[in-house]
Amino acid sequence: MLRSLILLLFTAFVGGLSAQQPLDLIPYPASVTRGTGTFTFDADTRLRTESAAQRQVADFFTKQYARATGWDLMAPGRGRKAITVRQDTALGDEAYRLDVNADGITVDAGSLHALVYGLQTLRQLLPPAFEDSTTVTDVAWEIPQLTIEDEPRFAWRGLMLDVSRHFFPVEYIKETIDRMAFLKLNTLHWHLVDDQGWRIEIKKYPRLTEMGAWRVDQEAIAWNARETNDPAAEATYGGYYTQAEISEVVDYAWRRGITVVPEIEMPAHVMSAIAAYPWLSCTEDTIAVPSGGVWPITEIYCAGKESTFTFLENVLTEVMALFPSRYIHVGGDEATKTNWELCPHCQRRIEAEGLAGTDELQSYFIRRIERFLSELGRTLLGWDEILEGGLAPGATVMSWRGMQGGWEASKEGHDVVMTPTSHAYFDYYQGNPDYEPTAFGAFTYLNTVYGFEPTLDSMTQAQRDRVLGGQANLWSEYVPTPAHSEYMLYPRLWATAEVLWSPRSVRDWADFSTRTRRMFPRFDRMGINYAKSAYQVTMEPQVDPAAPSVSLRLASEFPDTRIRYTTDGQPVTAASPLYDGPVRLSSTATVKAVVFEDGKPVTRPTEKSYVFHEAVNARATFEPTYHQAYSGQGDVTPVNILRGSKDFHDGQWLGWLNTDVTIELDLGEAKEISSVQLGFLESQGAGIYFPTSVAVSVSEDGQTYTETGTFTRELQSAPETTIEDFGVDFPARPARYLRLRVAHGRSWLFLDEVLVR
């Protein structure tokens, strides 16, 4: 009797623990009511549906279930346990209710796509081994008893993939759709056209893919340093999607609750089209598809020729036959209208339509395309530049240059999608550039994404009702491969998904961070190449120039991490000191620091050297003085111990534009020295180049200088951002004054420290 009572109490205790184990769900549901105990899947569990359509959209779940468990949810017979799927029209179109008890699971859904969301939640409740591609036998296939009532906060929950700057195969597009569905995102914005490549087959205009889809391969050169291509040069880099492939992707996405919205750029970002058909431009010059960055964008469609609109209407007709989406994105951004100012066709159009100038001509262009789409039952969507000159009546605005464009459009009664650079641009760095692949020179951290709010406090309720939602954007100038694309997307896309789905009341950065970290093993099993940048240790130095000394604060973006460090350049181990407060340095040190979990380092260690050299606190003068936009910490910048990073906006760099530089240092007293090294940054895509020579002269009296040596180097093509020290070593000699002549003269020169030893 006593033994039975103990067993009963123990079972109840374990059941209670199971019921209260954390729910690792992203995005987090609107409402969760926890029960007691679990539901256990077994070989007799079956999926019961009401229709073939339900079985079709549940296919992703039943197939993965069979792979991981070895059991067939669709096997003959009703089974002892069931996952029962029901349509409930009383629920919202994207709402579902998931009820789990000991005897079975019920998923009530307002639509087929809501059923997908319910099954994705069920999937995330299952153990991470559910994501395996082969049968796993040593796992308890059970989930906690609970009731979830859930629906999204916003109707538009999107991701934009740019496949023009770099082309990605269909298989990767489908993988991305699978990841989006996992996160309950519902809109894939497919950027199919840009200057650097036309990626969609248009049967009426075959040269768009025969010529416009290909460019000269300059992949070994930094994006913005690539040369203008000769139209006669062989074009070997690129690719495109056939109409059959596009239909396949659209159908694949629909089965997973995702609508694919195509973007066909106009009137700018279309050099790929003009390369194929020069008559589309004002000048009709023969051009090549560019291999890299283009700015300003002057080669744009001619708005004065009727043939341009005939071409676009024919293209859009084929596009609409492939994409059932209500929305057709037409770009509308970054058009430099220089050629329109000079074009007789455009000037005649301006006069005939009574337009005030080229801004209104762009408005005419967009309004005309909007009218064409509207007559065919579609809605024009464009970047916020389509506001310029007046907004087309039925247009929807995608606000990217901040939130103001969305505010203005909503004030005028237009629907908007918020996607500001500040929170939604995933081609930006997500961590310290010293430990990240090359990206656009700005930052969108994981916690920044999680802080995104698509509505503004200054909006009226009517304006808020016009905000459809938001999306993340991954432009691919610096993203050449699928693996790199995944790295830039995840985990930031998980944050976007939660922002757009979950109520504000359940969102919490610390909780999201914890769930994200606990879900990494699941994503490992899914084979996702996610970034661990939020673990990377940051070092915040505070210099006391009088001592001199440096006080270092260590942190990671994820809260409550365990950071271990060394100050002697030795590897960091599980036995290294645990960080618990600022680290003080008073002599030369190489600091390494890394987050540890389960006794192992999570990332590469952050490493920084702090050299207390002979020129620390020296008086420095410059001829010419540094550029006001890149003034670092002022005159003390190259003698303050602190080194710059690959982020040239970090406040530790002095910059000069198109000039040689002379730097003079007064060490305060004569010192025995034998080496002078200067630290420089090169980022050719940003127009920053290493010097071609550094000449070092020294003096004891400040009057008579002796040259100790000159370092020279040839200009070299370099696609990556790098930091190097250049200078000279020489036999030891006394010196108080140094004169350093740096030859450059090309674009930007960036200097962070002068190390005198």
Task: Sum this structure up briefly.
The protein is α/β, with parallel strands linked by helices and 757 residues long. It contains 19 helices and 34 strands.
What is the secondary structure topology, with strand pairs?
Blueprint: H1 2-20, E1 31-40, E2 45-48, H2 52-57, H3 59-69, E3 81-87, E4 96-100, E5 104-109, H4 112-125, E6 142-150, E7 156-162, H5 170-182, E8 187-191, E9 193-194, E10 197-198, H6 207-210, E11 214-215, E12 237-238, H7 243-254, E13 259-266, H8 271-276, H9 306-322, E14 327-331, H10 338-342, H11 344-353, H12 358-375, E15 379-383, E16 396-399, H13 404-411, E17 416-418, H14 421-424, E18 428-429, E19 440-443, H15 446-450, H16 461-465, E20 467-474, H17 482-489, H18 492-501, H19 509-525, E21 538-544, E22 549-555, E23 562-566, E24 583-585, E25 589-597, E26 600-601, E27 606-610, E28 619-623, E29 654-657, E30 661-682, E31 693-699, E32 706-712, E33 722-743, E34 748-756
Parallel strand pairs: 2-3, 3-5, 7-8, 7-20, 8-13, 13-14, 14-15, 15-16, 16-17, 17-20, 18-19
Antiparallel strand pairs: 1-6, 4-5, 4-6, 9-10, 11-12, 21-22, 22-24, 23-25, 25-26, 25-27, 28-30, 29-34, 30-33, 30-34, 31-32, 31-33
Helix pairs in contact: 5-7
